[in-house]
Amino acid sequence: MRSSIFLGLALVVALVVGFAVQAELFPANYVYQKSYLCSDKIQAEFIPADTHVTGYIRAENPFSAYVVVSNSGYFESLEKSEVVHSWENVTEVKLDFDVPGENCYLVVKNGNTNQIVEIKFKAER
């Protein structure tokens, strides 16, 4: 009985330490994703208003990326008036920009080849 209590306590401590380390390595303002995108598919990441974004997007084949002001989170048909920044038909983007006074999304639209796209950025006030 005593050994099972000790084992349970050790498991709880290990979980708490694991979550604390993960929170330190990946704070709330940090995004890292390496995901497989099918051709012509979209991936969007939220960016809070009034922040400075630094990071990158990389892939082996061309993609397009946009910073879009949107309340709906729907990006199938981008209006020019909603696009704050854009990079089209590129394989790498270095992110270093200020977000306006509205919440935005970083939208990555894959090209015509299925591929892994790596997105890494942080948004700081």
Walkthrough of the structure:
This protein has one domain: GOLD domain (Jelly Rolls, Sandwich). 19% of the residues lie in helices and 52% in strands. It has one helix at 2-25; strands spanning 30-37, 42-47, 52-69, 83-98, 104-110, 115-124. Strands 1, 2, 3, 4, 5 and 6 form a six-stranded antiparallel beta sheet that branches. The chain is globular. The model is unreliable at 6-26 (pLDDT under 50).
What key phrases describe this protein's structure?
alpha+beta; 6 strands; 125 residues; Jelly Rolls; 1 helix
Largest sheet: number of strands, sense, barrel closure: 6 strands, antiparallel
Low-confidence stretches: 6-26
At the fourth level of CATH, the homologous superfamily is GOLD domain
Order of SSEs, N→C? HEEEEEE
β-strand number: 6
CATH architecture grouping: Sandwich
